[in-house]
UniProtKB/TrEMBL annotation:
Keywords on record: Antiport, Lipid transport, Membrane, Repeat, Transmembrane, Transmembrane helix, Transport
Organism: Junco hyemalis (Dark-eyed junco)
Keyword Thylakoid among record annotations: no
GO BP term, example: lipid transport
Entry's transmembrane regions: none
Annotated catalysed reactions: maleate(in) + 2-oxoglutarate(out) = maleate(out) + 2-oxoglutarate(in); (S)-malate(in) + 2-oxoglutarate(out) = (S)-malate(out) + 2-oxoglutarate(in); malonate(in) + 2-oxoglutarate(out) = malonate(out) + 2-oxoglutarate(in); oxaloacetate(in) + 2-oxoglutarate(out) = oxaloacetate(out) + 2-oxoglutarate(in)
Domain of life: Eukaryota
Protein name per its UniProtKB record: Mitochondrial 2-oxoglutarate/malate carrier protein
Family (UniProt): Belongs to the mitochondrial carrier (TC 2.A.29) family.
Subunit-structure text: Interacts with SMIM26.
Length: 263
């Protein structure tokens, strides 16, 4: 169980821990929530924006979408770029989450994500903001290649079947399929990432040499399908997230085209 700080009177909290001046009528924004929101605002908008631009750029002149492998390559590019842009917010989020488990004397005490970013850059150097960038980008490449490409391909398949129109029902079904594919593709990567982050040192040697060693040992000692252990709850979390992401994206694209491109 994580550390739960005792309740405090909002009037005694530092003003920098608020996005707005303290007021009984305005709820305080939790520090970790600010980091999570900034991560989504940087990572998600970057990857979706780049993928949409690439999809339009490399599509046919008659509106024909590119082939699946090209979509996967676009998803990988968008995911890597989004992860690079979103890494500072993710580093701040990880630190702020872990802060509550540290002894009181070792806590960093970031008031919000902007305080965390400024202090990390000032106290440890700007490059600290991109610590762990490579594995984060590697995971994003796999996840986005699966999520973005499978959504576009599923949507194209549903429209070509003649049973769907380009509406919210089609977007919902395509995004549920995308969530399923993304869950299957990302769970082994997440297992590797988690095992490496939590590995022990045995007799002076690390428990795993690299990501491939993690996969081989998990399959050998725990079974092949243990790579997808907890599939149902993972999909229950990722499925709705994927549905909302693509439904909102499609609606915003339609409003953008209606307001700015057809005016």
């Amino acid at each position: 169980m994580g550390y739960s700080p005792p309740p405090q009177n909002p009037k005694h909290l530092p003003a920098s821990s608020f996005f707005l001046p303290p007021s009984p009528a305005i709820p305080r924004v939790p520090p970790r929530l600010s980091a999570g929101l900034l991560r989504q605002a940087t990572y998600t908008t970057t990857r979706l924006g780049i993928y949409s631009v690439l999809l339009e750029r490399f599509g046919g002149a008659d509106g024909t979408p590119p082939p699946f492998l090209a979509k996967a390559a676009m998803g990988m590019t968008a995911g890597a770029a989004g992860a690079f842009v979103g890494t500072p917010a993710e580093v701040a989020l990880i630190r702020m989450t872990a802060d509550g488990r540290l002894p009181p004397g070792e806590r960093r005490g970031y008031h919000n994500v902007f305080d965390a970013l400024v202090r990390m850059a000032r106290e440890e150097g700007v490059f600290t903001l991109w610590r762990g960038c490579i594995p984060t980008m590697a995971r994003a490449v796999v996840v986005n290649a699966a999520q973005l490409a499978s959504y576009s391909q599923s949507k194209q398949f549903l429209l070509d079947s003649g049973h769907f129109r380009d509406d919210i029902l089609c977007h919902f079904c395509a995004s549920m399929i995308s969530g399923l594919v993304t869950t299957a593709a990302s769970m082994p990567v997440d297992i590797v990432k988690t095992r490496i982050q939590n590995m022990r040192t045995i007799d002076g040697k690390p428990e795993y040499r690299n990501g491939l060693d993690v996969l081989l040992k998990v399959v050998r000692y725990e079974g092949f399908f243990s790579l997808w252990k907890g599939f149902t709850p993972y999909y229950a979390r990722l499925g709705p997230h994927t549905v909302l992401t693509f439904i909102f994206l499609e609606q915003m694209n339609k409003w953008y085209q209606r307001l700015f491109l057809t005016a």
